[in-house]
Design brief:
Layout: E1 11-13, E2 21-23, E3 29-34, H1 41-52, H2 54-59, E4 62-68, H3 72-75, E5 86-88, H4 93-98, H5 105-108, H6 110-128, E6 149-153, E7 159-164, H7 174-184
Parallel strand pairs: 3-4, 4-5
Antiparallel strand pairs: 1-2, 3-6, 6-7
Length: about 190
């Protein structure tokens, strides 16, 4: 199983829209999500759940940063209503740094099938209503077999918790994220 770095070096990440992102956030926990490709129906399904509870996530002192392995030009079409920044990483540098891999089990694992169907149905309905662009299913930038990764990072760069997805829809739920943050917050020294 891959292992994340112990400490993440401070830097700026280029958001697809808006100002550069200080990473990790110097004042709050950072929830780094490494997702798949722009318009990925399964990723969109998950991000909608994060979006619905974003105010609660922020109130818990957590900043969301979501990375896709697509170019910024492709991601730009999906930024519109998201309350958190998207980062394009077409060269998969952050994926390599954090040990997040691609594997055919991303799509073939039985636990992914129902979320894939739900995500495709939701995306198809949105495309038919002209609310979303059709995703590049057959040849997405960076491939379609990406596995998700979740990391909770302290303001000083220490990785407090990590989850490596076993399939396309294997990530922390918002409830799990909030529980983990409440637990690890005890490990953060008060300044």
């Amino acid at each position: 199983m891959p292992k994340p770095p112990t400490v993440v070096r401070a830097r700026e990440l280029a958001a697809v829209a808006g100002a550069p992102i200080r990473f990790p956030d110097p004042d709050r926990l950072t929830h780094l999500q490494l997702r798949r490709f722009a318009g990925c129906p399964v990723c969109n399904l998950h991000l909608r759940s994060v979006m619905r509870r974003h105010a609660e996530i922020e109130a818990a002192g957590i900043r969301e940063v979501v990375v896709f392995h697509s170019p910024a030009s492709e991601l730009a079409e999906y930024v519109g209503d998201l309350p958190f920044p998207l980062v394009a990483d077409p060269d998969k540098r952050l994926y390599a740094e954090f040990g997040v891999e691609s594997a055919k089990r991303a799509m073939l694992h039985p636990a992914a099938w129902l979320p894939i169907l739900r995500g495709v149905a939701r995306s198809t309905w949105a495309v038919l209503r002209r609310r979303e662009r059709r995703p590049a299913f057959l040849r997405p930038s960076g491939g379609r077999y990406g596995l998700p990764g979740d990391f909770l990072i302290a303001p000083d760069g220490r990785i407090l918790a990590a989850k490596y997805g076993e399939h396309a829809y294997d990530q922390w739920s918002v409830e799990e994220l909030l529980e983990i943050a409440a637990t690890v917050r005890l490990a953060i020294p008060v300044s």
